[in-house]
Amino acid sequence: MANNNIGPKRLVVGAGYGWKDWMAQRVTAIVMAVYTVVLLVAFLTGQNFTYEGWAGLFAQQWFKLFSLVTFAALFYHAWVGMRDIWMDYVKPVGIRLALQIGTILWLVACAAWTVQILWSV
Question: pLDDT tens for residues 58-93?
């Protein structure tokens, strides 16, 4: 019996997360980098370095939405990274599942807190 599990006809199994998650990590990193540049430009070109000045920046609807999108990208970026760590290094399925559920709950709580903070300004 010949082993056909090599070369272009090899049997590929697994979760299949590779390409999509690799791309998601890059796209979310770009979103976060652009936000950082915008925030730095706002800081370096602004004259009002008081709480009121920053509150004024975050009070603008476009900046709230941009911040929310950036934090959503951050949370997804963190999820992909943590899920991969749990999958790669935690072998007992029950512990891995508990860690993944804990991570999801933590990130959802952080997302809710982010919305609360952004819309309280």
Answer: 999 999 999 999 999 999 999 999 999 999 999 999
82 and 103 Cβ atoms separated by less than 8 Å: yes
| Alpha-carbon torsion, ordered 13, 14, 17, 18, to 10 deg | -60
Instruction: Assess contact for 53 and 46: CB atoms under 8 A.
Output: yes
Sign of CA dihedral 44, 66, 32, 119: positive
Task: Evaluate the CA torsion angle 106, 107, 109, 114 in order and state its sign.
Answer: positive
Which residues 6+ apart lie within 8 Å of 58 measured at CB?
64, 67, 118, 121
* Of 71 and 57, more confident: 71
Closest by Cα among 116, 79, 118, 73 to 101: 79
Burial of 28 (0-12, 13-18, 19+ CB in 10 A): buried
pTM, rounded to two decimals:
0.81
Written as six digits, the tokens of 24 are 């998601």
